[in-house]
Specification:
The protein is an alpha+beta fold. The protein contains 2 helices and 2 strands; from the N terminus they run H-E-E-H. The chain is flat and about 45 Å long.
């Protein structure tokens, strides 16, 4: 997940990391999620790139902050719910934020 001020290069950083332009750089006002399959140590891994709206787009960024925190909490709650099941889904996708 990348977060920061408007125009700080969040989307461009994600595009540079993957070597392709798949992340929109048009200043979306929503949290955008891009699922990607990459090869790491000869194994395929599925990762999510999460691009957040830029801070400073309004007089009060509290709603933006709250939406990011809510998203992170929702993903953690979903993971805990799945891990608590007796019969877990073997194809469950872990959508927690591992790096901010």
């Amino acid at each position: 997940m990348v977060a920061g001020p408007i125009g700080s290069g969040k989307s461009s950083l994600l595009n540079s990391l993957i070597g392709k332009e798949i992340v929109r750089t048009n200043g979306s006002n929503e949290i955008d999620i891009y699922m990607l399959n990459i090869e790491c140590n000869e194994m395929m891994q599925r990762i999510a790139l999460i691009d957040t709206p830029g801070f400073g787009s309004s007089l009060d960024d509290e709603l933006l902050h709250d939406s990011i925190v809510d998203y992170i909490k929702e993903q953690l709650d979903s993971f805990i719910e799945e891990e608590s099941k007796i019969r877990r889904n073997p194809k469950y996708e872990d959508t927690r934020v591992h790096c901010l």
